[in-house]
Structure prediction request, 69 residues.
Amino acid sequence: MMMGTLTMGLVAAVVALSLWALIDCVRTPAERVRFVPKLLWVLFLLHTPVFGGLVWTYYGKRRTLLAST
Prediction:
C-alpha cells in the first residue's frame, strides 16, 4: 500500500511539472524564448516531459529583472 501511494505521488509530481512547463512555454512571449523557436521547445517538452521541463525551467527563457521600488 505504501508503494502505491509513493508511486502516485511521484506520477502526480511528474504530471504537474510537465503541465506547468508546457503551459509556461506556450504563454511566454516569443522574444523571451532562448536558443530555439517556441515550437521546438513545445515539441521537446512533449517528447521528454521530465528532462524537458527541467531544461525549460533553467534555460528556456530569458529572466526579467524586477523593478526595484
In short: The CA atoms of residues 46 and 69 lie 39 Å apart. The longest helix spans residues 2-27. The helical segments are 2-27, 38-47, 49-60. The mean pLDDT is 89.
